[in-house]
Write a structure and sequence with these properties.
2 copies of one chain form a homodimer. Chain A contains 12 helices and 17 strands. By secondary structure, chain A is α/β, with parallel strands linked by helices. Chain A has a 5-stranded mixed beta barrel with strand order 6-9-7-8-10. A 4-stranded mixed sheet of chain A has the order 12-14-16-17. The first copy, chain A, is globular and about 60 Å long. Chains A and B meet through strand 13, strand 15, strand 16, strand 17 and helix 12 of A and strand 13, strand 15, strand 16, strand 17 and helix 12 of B.
Chain lengths: 361, 361
């Protein structure tokens, strides 16, 4: 393993699209989940950048977000050069964003530079385990023509994630275990998820993947050639946002999984030892904090009287009180308050969608 | 009936003590129920004064409240002369306050002037029916030596009010029906309350009673003579608050019901045709507003998703949303939010008492 080669040319590309639905009202369409500061007093996107420490320096961290979040993102990541943070003029799903990422990495590091598509709004513990597998994946991507996905070890039959079926192992002499990918599968129902877990051959698709710029460009050219022009234009022009402004309106909105990953054959999966949490709802949030004697998770100024197993979140200056209720989520923020049955927390997004928000693009 | 005599010398004395527990957080110890503005955009104490229109002019409305509420009360009642609104230095229950009321009425209108002890934080509908019975009660008190209580017709076996047992009728030629009082009874249990209703002889004790200053002073002298000095001092001195400051610390804290009313024999009860509501909790509040198709009573900016039979109150600039819950009270104010099972609304006072508030007096 030639570490120096991998590390010198490695870039992180954090996709920070948005989505404020499931943690509303703490997150909102105007302040999506990556800016939520519940953990360690810093936003999740800052966690995403900070956990690269020692592996990828800030000047090689790139962020692709929505145009309206560029200023917030630059404020959250003051150590990242402002030009590394670019905003999409409208939402075009992940295929277009990854094409822009390939172009940006090639413009900065050449065709042999390696890029890692990373998420903006997840927690990973221990972070050292994440850095170890990412370092190995960067090295493998640099010295092979494979696209390397990170596959998280499932600990329960989740129905909210896609899965990756692993084929035979491939030994690169790394601490991390790599395997060929047999196939990607969409979010399963519970019975199917249980069957996947029983085989021991399935990982969760964490939405993170690592590639040499030339490898990913070739994959687009083979499976979704309509994005090749975008890659070339971004690689050639100094103003990435101008390229997006010109090309996005006509480009297809599709996911990189559908456009490329499910069709490419040169994909490896790295098995990950870290616990991965997309904190995609209030119950997931609560798992990160201790409960009181009655099982209430309480953040901020809260009061309870004969109440148990609730999640109560209140901002600093405000008291939030719960009387005679169980299994309720109560979240108070300056602009809105949510009161929701714990087992209905996934329906918060339905409520938020029912509000009239301005359309994107 | 000599209307002119009764009306020329009539004073209203509104007792506005406090108590913010059952409507917390809309009411608080610092902003008790009489200042709540849910109904018609004006505080309940303003309703108490406004419904006297045509019967008692503002310059003959007196208010006895706690010293710390004097400024708020004057602001809520700008048409009442500021000197008519006095603050008790500490809480001494209703006997002392009524003694002060007797002294104030006598100082202004002489021994034959009539005073009506009225409540500060209740709704009465229709108000015309209230005015009619109050007018008759003022006239009867002026021309007799009776203390006249207002007895509200019970429409259910309430356990939260005291009751008045009526003896034989007394005809004063008024539209309202008057009867002698057989006895006052404390808040009953449900079975006892049902038995009271079955007799058809019981009224709810509304805590409002009307008397000539000389009559009420004589009742104190006969049954609670320790308060006579307070009456005389208030009647003689221009500065009522100075008298209270000097005499309250040593005075007994007891209710006028216990000290005088339950012992006096010259008491009449006027049967009232109005509906009387002390809006003493969130369920009582909700009854005054229409519900949506799912039975939710919603005040302010609210949102619901698959939720029914809730009471949701939100201040103007804030959205309060309820998802997947039934029979819950949610009240948002700028300083605090309450989330409570509807059938546990009476426990809100337990919660509020658990907070550390500075003691009074």
């Amino acid at each position: 393993m030639r570490k120096t080669m991998a590390r010198g040319d490695s870039y992180a590309v954090i996709l920070a699209g948005g989505g404020g639905e499931r943690l509303w009202p703490l997150s909102t369409p105007e302040r999506p989940k990556q800016f939520v500061e519940l953990f360690g007093g810093k936003p999740l996107i800052r966690h995403a950048a900070d956990r690269l420490a020692g592996l990828i320096p800030p000047e090689r961290i790139l962020v692709i977000t929505a145009a309206r979040f560029v200023a917030q993102t630059r404020a959250a990541l003051p150590m990242v050069p402002p030009a590394n943070i670019v905003g999409e003029p409208c939402r075009r799903d992940t295929a277009a964003a990854v094409a822009v990422a390939v172009g940006m990495v090639r413009a900065r590091g050449g065709a042999d530079a390696v890029g890692a598509i990373l998420t903006a709004d997840q927690l990973m513990t221990p972070e050292e385990a994440f850095r170890r597998v990412l370092g190995d994946a960067l090295a493998v991507a640099a010295r092979s023509d494979a696209i390397v996905t990170l596959g998280v070890e499932p600990d329960h039959p989740a129905t909210g994630f896609g899965y990756i079926a692993r084929a035979e192992k491939v030994d690169f002499g790394t601490a991390s275990e790599f395997a060929k990918v047999e196939r990607f599968v969409e979010k399963p129902d519970l019975e199917t998820a249980r069957a996947y877990l029983a085989t021991g051959r399935y990982s969760w698709n964490a939405g993170m993947f690592i590639w040499k710029a030339s490898t990913m460009a070739a994959a687009f050219a083979a499976h979704a050639p309509e994005f090749s022009g975008l890659i070339e234009a971004v690689a050639a022009a100094p103003d990435v946002e101008a390229v997006m402004a010109a090309r996005y309106p006509a480009i297809r909105a599709t996911s990189v999984d559908y456009a490329v990953m499910e069709k490419a054959t040169n994909i490896l999966v790295a098995r990950c030892a870290f616990t991965w949490d997309d904190v995609g709802g209030w119950n997931a949030i609560a798992a990160h904090f201790p409960a009181d004697a009655r099982g209430n998770v309480r953040l901020g100024k809260t009061a309870v009287y004969d109440a148990g197993n609730n999640i109560i979140v209140s901002d600093d200056a405000h008291v939030t009180a719960v009387v005679g209720l169980e299994n309720v989520v109560v979240v108070h923020t300056p602009h809105a308050t949510l009161v929701c049955a714990r087992d209905r927390a996934q329906d918060v997004k339905q409520l938020v969608r029912s509000f009239a928000f301005p359309p994107c693009g």
